[in-house]
Design brief:
Strand order of the largest sheet: 1-7-6-5-4-3-2
Helix content: under 10%
Structural class: mainly beta
Low-confidence stretches: none
Oligomer: single chain
Number of domains: 1
Shape: globular
Radius of gyration: 13 Å
Distance between the termini: 35 Å
Order of helices and strands: EEEEEEEH
């Protein structure tokens, strides 16, 4: 099995009423994106995926590895790419 590389990121979080962590902002390198809204989330045995929309109009899918407490960027779609596909 070949694992695809993931981009390591820093995620600032906030808790909602259910005590689940919701990304508030994403930082990779010098670039920071404020999260406007969480769109979806789903769980695996020891990880959690979260789909969010950033202030830049981009869609991001983030993966949280619970045993290692690490976030990774697994998918990004720019606002411009979304408009081109509409």
């Amino acid at each position: 099995m070949i694992l695809e590389p993931k981009m390591r990121i820093h995620v600032e979080q906030r808790s909602n009423d259910c005590r689940a962590s919701i990304p508030r902002s994403i930082r990779f390198g010098r670039h920071q994106v404020e999260v406007l809204e969480p769109l979806d989330h789903w769980y695996g045995p020891d990880y959690r995926y979260t789909k969010v929309r950033g202030h830049d109009g981009g869609l991001y899918i983030l993966r949280f590895d619970e045993p290692h407490a690490e976030w990774a960027l697994t998918m990004f779609k720019s606002a411009r790419a979304q408009i081109g596909m509409a």
